[in-house]
Amino acid sequence: MKAAARFDLADLRLFVAIVEAGSITKGAAQAHLALASASERLRNIEDEAGTPLLQRRARGVATTEAGEALMRHARAMLEQHQLLRRELHEFAAGARGTLHLYANTGALSEYLPEKLAPWLAKRPHLHLELKERTSPEIVQLVAAGHAEAGIASDAVEPHELQCIRLVKSDLVLIVPSAHRLARHERLRFADALVEPFVGLSGHSALQDLVEAEALSAGGRLSTRIRLKTFEGLCEMVACGVGVGVIPLPAAQRFQARFAFRVIALKDAWASRSLCAYYRDWAALGAPMQSLLEHLRGGAGTRRARR
C-alpha cells in the first residue's frame, strides 16, 4: 500500500500558484522558481499523490478532480499557516498571551487603571493578571526570579534591581474637617495612633503596611471598620468615623467630594514614589517590555537602584 502523500508548504504554494495562473510558466514565476525547477517539483508532487493532478493543455493547465481536492486543502492549509505565523508574531510582539504583574494597593487603585486602559485596548488578545502584594514582597519576588516585574514603592530595599520611577505617591493621613488634628499640616504617624481608624478590607497590601508601621511605632491600630475602596474609606472619615492613611493621589481625587483634611506624614516610610522593578531588561518578555515602556512614558530612563 502506498504511503500517504507528503507535501511541504513550498509544494503547496507552487501548486496553488500554477492553478491560479492557469500556467506552469506563470505559476513558476509567481513562486520565484525557474521553469525547470517548478516542472520537476510538480512531477514530484504528482508522483507523491499517485494520481494526475493537472491536465496539460495547449494553452495552459487545468485541474483534475484530484487536483481540485488538493487545491481546496492546499488553500486551507496555507491560510492556517498564515494565521499561525500571525498569532506567533503577536505572542513575540507582546500582543497576545497572559501577563502577570504584581503591584501594591496604591498602584492598583490609583495609578494602573488609567494607565493600563489604552495599552490593553490596543491588544485585544492579551490578558493581564494583576496580583496585589506589599512593596517589600513585590521586590523580593522579582529579585528571587518569581516575577518578571512589579510596581512598588521606592521606600523598600531594592536588592540590586533596576527600576523605573513612575509617579510620586506619598502616603498621607486624612481626618474629619473638624477633628482635633485637622489644624496640623504635618504629623508623625505615632501622633495619630490614639485615634480610631478606618481601614481597608481584604488582603490589602497598604493596610498590612499601615498596621506594621503602627507596631513599629509602639502602638496598635484601633480599626472601627474596613472598606474595600479608597472612596468608601474617605466617606467614612469625612463622616467622623475615624482617621485613615491613603496615597496622596487618592486623597486629592476624593477631597472635592468629601469633607476631610489631608495631613502630610513626617515618617520616612510615608514619603515614596511608585517604581517599576525588574532584574534585567533584556531578560524581560516582549509583553512586559512593552508594558513598562508604556508606563514609563516621560518618567525617565531605566537606571540601577543603589
Overview of this protein structure:
Helices cover 42% and strands 24% of the residues. It is an alpha/beta fold and 306 residues long. It has three domains: 9-92, Winged helix-like DNA-binding domain superfamily/Winged helix DNA-binding domain (Arc Repressor Mutant, subunit A), CATH 1.10.10.10; 96-168 and 272-304, D-Maltodextrin-Binding Protein, domain 2 (3-Layer(aba) Sandwich); 171-270, 3-Layer(aba) Sandwich (D-Maltodextrin-Binding Protein, domain 2), CATH 3.40.190.10. β9 (196-200), α7 (205-216) and β10 form a beta-alpha-beta unit.
Largest sheet: 6 strands, mixed
Helix and strand sequence: HHHEEHEHEHEEEEEHEHEHEEHE
Radius of gyration: 32 Å
Class from helix and strand fractions: alpha/beta
> What's the β-strand tally?
14
* Helix content percent band: 40-55%
Count of discrete domains: 3
CATH superfamily of the largest domain: Periplasmic binding protein-like II
Instruction: Assign the CATH architecture of the largest domain.
Output: 3-Layer(aba) Sandwich
**Alpha-carbon distance between the two ends:** 72 Å
* Strand order within the widest beta sheet: 4-3-5-13-6-14
* Total of DSSP H or I helical runs spanning 4+ residues: 10
Bulk shape? rod-shaped
> How much β-strand is present in the residues?
15-25%
CATH class of the largest domain: Alpha Beta
- Uncertain stretches of 5 or more adjacent residues: 298-306
CATH topology of the largest domain: D-Maltodextrin-Binding Protein, domain 2
Q: If you average the pLDDT, what whole number results?
A: 88
